[in-house]
Amino acid sequence: MSLRDLLVAAGPTILLVGIACFVAYLLVDPAPPRQVRLATGQEHSAYEAFGTQYAKELKRDGIVVSLQPSLGSQENLERLQRGQADIAFVQSGSTSEEQAGKLGLVSLGSLFTEPVWLFLRDTVKTNNLTGLRGLRINLGPEGTGVPTLFRQVLSVNGVEPNELTIGALENTPATVELLAGRIDGLVFSSAPEAPLIQMLLQTPGIRLFNFSQAEAYTRRLPFLTHVTLPRAIVDLGRDIPAQDYHLIAPTATLVAREDLHPALVDLFVKAAVEIHGGAGWFQQQGQFPSPKYTEIPVSDEAAKYYRDGPPFLQRYMSFWLANLFDRLWVVVVALAALVIPLSKIVPPLYVWRVRSRVYRWYGELRAVEQAWEGVVDEQREIVRADLLRRLDEIEESVNHISIPLAYADGLYGLRGHINIVRQRVAADPAALPAGGLAE
């Protein structure tokens, strides 16, 4: 075989197959982006803290998570709708299944419960939400999910929002106002890991409201669950808190645009398992993350992950290598579609290219023979010398032809035919048979 001839003959086919595979690799199943935007929450909130953990987890797989602070769930939903974020933390009850479908949003699962924390100054003695009438209570900015949520809670107690002095400060300045005595209470809806929650649970002069009717709230507002803050969970030595507290809690969910790359869905669910899969104040080991407790439809990729675990290749390979092999089936299809028909073209092209090295000299040899046939007797001796010299040049060139052994018979046949023409030119015409080599 002649490698050079084979490459030249197969070159166009190889190039065409390569281009087809490259186009299939890029367009049919594009690679996941290396950067994703995650909308979190307010400063010092649980959303902000967990967003930092997600960024660290995905950085191990070469994905840069750009954190976008926000006021909360409502603003996060708006950012997803406008395409300003790819994924976000959203509180259950912030939207509906129908609205989520219209906005093109899917859930990657619920992550943790977000109890409604109502912190009051010790001077406020009420044990019922009807006792909040006339008090100064901060619910947070409208971009969060808390104002909408707590208004529903007040409504089932027969309390109208205009019966309170409602504040719209963010969490940190609202906490400052509460500690300074300028407001009577504030409402958070956050995981207990939030720094402000941890601080207020241990601050003298501030008490946590006990939702003793929590089970009834879950019947009236189905997106809420009843959770219990155990006695001494904050500090066993100091017995903080000094009693069990009943709380009502929506759940935090990870919501994404439906066009988020499937590989990134797997990565975020995997990170959620690492971050939220342990036991906590309000959850058992392995209870979260979960495809339950969310009104937003769970994406197919996330549901498959919860059902079957991580993709097979990602269990044994790095994310990018597993993703590469997972996408190679597209290339295999492209190869099968092109290589099979084109493979029938390459062998004839190869044979033609090899044999053409010999066949081109037959044209030169035929030109010499025709020149000799047209010579008149008076010029025969002069032309004979020129033609013999030309035949020597042809033979010299033929002797330097490189040809695979499988096709050497054509080369030796050519050399024999050169010798026949030489004999005809050199000999007396009367001694040769009529017709010459052509015959």
From TrEMBL:
Family matches, as Gene3D superfamilies: Periplasmic binding protein-like II (3.40.190.10)
Keyword terms of this UniProt record: Membrane, Transmembrane, Transmembrane helix
Keyword Cytoplasm among record annotations: no
Membrane among keywords: yes
Matches recorded under PROSITE patterns: PROKAR_LIPOPROTEIN
A Pfam family the protein falls into: NMT1_3
Transmembrane intervals: 7-28, 328-352
InterPro entries: TRAP_TAXI (IPR011852)
PANTHER family for the chain: SLL1037 PROTEIN (PTHR42941)
Name the UniProt record assigns to this protein: TAXI family TRAP transporter solute-binding subunit
Species in which this protein is naturally found: Massilia niabensis
